[in-house]
TrEMBL record, chains A, B:
<keyword id="KW-0238">DNA-binding</keyword>
<dbReference type="InterPro" id="IPR036271">
    <property type="entry name" value="Tet_transcr_reg_TetR-rel_C_sf"/>
</dbReference>
<dbReference type="InterPro" id="IPR011075">
    <property type="entry name" value="TetR_C"/>
</dbReference>
<feature type="domain" description="HTH tetR-type">
    <location>
        <begin position="14"/>
        <end position="74"/>
    </location>
</feature>
<keyword id="KW-0805">Transcription regulation</keyword>
<dbReference type="Pfam" id="PF16859">
    <property type="entry name" value="TetR_C_11"/>
</dbReference>
<dbReference type="InterPro" id="IPR009057">
    <property type="entry name" value="Homeodomain-like_sf"/>
</dbReference>
<feature type="DNA-binding region" description="H-T-H motif">
    <location>
        <begin position="37"/>
        <end position="56"/>
    </location>
</feature>
<protein>
    <submittedName>
        <fullName>TetR/AcrR family transcriptional regulator</fullName>
    </submittedName>
</protein>
<dbReference type="Pfam" id="PF00440">
    <property type="entry name" value="TetR_N"/>
</dbReference>
<dbReference type="GO" id="GO:0003700">
    <property type="term" value="F:DNA-binding transcription factor activity"/>
</dbReference>
<dbReference type="GO" id="GO:0000976">
    <property type="term" value="F:transcription cis-regulatory region binding"/>
</dbReference>
<keyword id="KW-0804">Transcription</keyword>
<dbReference type="InterPro" id="IPR050109">
    <property type="entry name" value="HTH-type_TetR-like_transc_reg"/>
</dbReference>
<dbReference type="InterPro" id="IPR001647">
    <property type="entry name" value="HTH_TetR"/>
</dbReference>
Amino acid sequence: MTSVAATRRSRITPEREAELYDAVLQLLREVGYDALTMDAVAAGTHSSKATLYRQWGSKPELVARALKHGRPGAARGVADTGSLRGDLRDAIVHAFDDCRIEQDAALMRGVGRAAHDNPELLRALRELLIEPSIADLRVMLDRAVRRGEIRSDNPALDLVPHMLVGALISRELIDGHAATQDFLATYLDAVVLPALRA
Amino acid sequence: MTSVAATRRSRITPEREAELYDAVLQLLREVGYDALTMDAVAAGTHSSKATLYRQWGSKPELVARALKHGRPGAARGVADTGSLRGDLRDAIVHAFDDCRIEQDAALMRGVGRAAHDNPELLRALRELLIEPSIADLRVMLDRAVRRGEIRSDNPALDLVPHMLVGALISRELIDGHAATQDFLATYLDAVVLPALRA
């Protein structure tokens, strides 16, 4: 995910890029992925379609980058609070804002649904959102192993992404409402940390 | 989910009912929920639409009952193997057939997507599939508490449905392929039982 796209994007200012991403997210919330057109993005941001395609290559790439931009705390790195529990709680607080969680869940559900029928969108989402989140998690877990909080051969180590993503998704299916920060913090203490024996 | 529907359904034989459900599942796999029509079900099963509506009331109800019928091991109850680990492994083996898991996952994904936009379908799925599965799980967990395998105040007790449903769904999102029996058995030993301290 480096050279070509990075070179392309460097032609516009970061402020202009942020403005474009915000407009894409707004359109996604209003009309959903399928009905979002590059024409509408161009019109809403006073850009030309040619510029959009030159900068981002495709609609899936533009949407995935807008979602990455819109993730609160995306570019802040992984805080070292001194313990795995502290690191994970800090990540939850910065990744999920309860005031926005319902709205964001609806947005991600719509995009997730679209990705099932669109391999290019799925690839962009994995590359720009899922894999970097798993990498961040890996940093925290490696640190906890080095601190001596977790044994390096604990079989739950590779399953932490499944636990957290699973908690986030299953909450709505099972209980009919989106996961909150409180629910995720409870899940952390009741499931994730005991499974890691941390 | 008792009297009215039960009375309605009692007018056809169990064999005929099973045949109808199989035809509905076949159509679901072929065309998906949205494109499935009561006309197509009627034509494919040599029934009249009036009969279908009299027996099941609506398309969501018919589809949810067909899915319940198609769940392997649905009506077998909850085996008592003597331990929570045995009970849960037995449930996994009977609920998921690896040869069908990809096909079933695609089917359930399609129906799940349709349910997001269709509250009546969501209600039928919750009532006929999700809630009975959670009730089965509760039977196993209560038994494990009585056996002394789990403390009754363990905070993970209420989160077992989220762990299992989460493992099932997140596997594909994170690793790009459906959960298998082996994956679920590993998850059970690495996450569910340690969280329960069982």
